[in-house]
Write a structure and sequence with these properties.
The chain is mainly α. The chain has 10 helices and 4 strands, in the order ααβββαβααααααα.
């Protein structure tokens, strides 16, 4: 039976708890997606599935504990949907690293402790401040980026394409209000797709260092040419076609391009977020 909102309130309408639970899980997943873009780590919400794992609680006894079979996550009946207060932590606070130093790291050494950029609070406030359209755009880019990370070890070609698509999601938002112009003679877009990609990466990935534009433009053009070859000609990456061979350089350049792309996305997404949030704050004040 259909009832309007006023009627629902009058009848004391109560939503099923599973609806509220789904909303809470969605929110957690969204925050973890944001953090996977804004930090140097992949953060995921554990699922109710069984698999082999190594227990962190045993590492103080044995740094390499034997794998165990278990469930990633499960629901305890004793834990309710709401909390009254946060538990006082009995461990050291997470280290915060200056953001430029944080995102300038080439990679992480095995065993590197989890840390956050020192402006993580401001960045999360920027995400929350976005309007509905920009929020969905950023979330979509974050999800495509996490899929790129997930796919890399098994399907490097799909991973590469997904990372470029994450960037293109942000690019499309920036051009959402621009009318597409075509040449009256040949019908081609006047503002080519490749040019939009390069302009975006230079604006949000290099910034005001115009002396570096030509050098980085070549690198970004190479990334997009790999993407185009993957999607339009089926030219897959080396790791998808052949087993990796220890001691060879067969796929070294491709892997370096892949790492560069993932770092490029994080830097561009972070700067896009800052610029978009600031622009929307100005509009709200005006």
């Amino acid at each position: 039976m259909a009832t309007d909102q006023g009627k629902q309130l009058e009848m004391g309408f109560i939503e099923p708890d599973w609806i509220n639970q789904s909303r809470r899980v969605d929110r957690i997943n969204h925050v973890l997606l944001w953090l996977t873009t804004l930090t140097a780590f992949q953060l995921v919400f554990p699922k109710q599935r069984s698999s082999w794992f190594r227990s962190d609680s045993d590492r103080h006894v044995d740094p390499f504990p034997l794998p165990q079979w278990g469930t990633e996550a499960y629901i305890l009946r004793e834990i309710g949907p709401c909390i009254e207060a946060f538990t006082e932590p009995d461990y050291a606070a997470i280290q915060h690293t200056e953001i430029h130093e944080y995102h300038s790291r080439i990679g992480l050494i095995l065993g590197h402790e989890f840390d956050l950029p020192d402006s993580i609070t401001e960045l999360l406030k920027d995400v929350i401040s976005l309007d509905a359209e920009a929020t969905e755009t950023f979330l979509s880019a974050c999800l495509l980026f996490r899929q790129a990370i997930d796919l890399w070890q098994c399907y490097s070609s799909l991973s590469f394409a997904s990372a470029v698509s994450a960037l293109e999601t942000l690019i499309d938002y920036n051009h959402r209000e621009l009318k597409l112009e075509r040449c009256g003679t040949c019908g081609q877009e006047r503002y080519r797709v490749v040019k939009k990609f390069l302009d975006f990466c230079l604006q949000y990935g290099v910034g005001n260092r115009k002396d570096l534009y030509q050098e980085y433009k070549k690198a970004f053009s190479k990334i997009y040419s790999i993407r185009s070859a993957l999607l339009h000609t089926g030219k897959l990456m080396h790791d998808d076609l052949y087993c990796p061979t220890i001691g060879t350089w067969d796929n070294f350049e491709e892997r370096e391009q892949h790492r560069t792309l993932l770092r490029l996305y994080r830097i561009c997404a972070l700067n896009w977020l800052r610029a978009t949030a600031a622009e929307q704050r100005v509009k709200r004040v005006g």
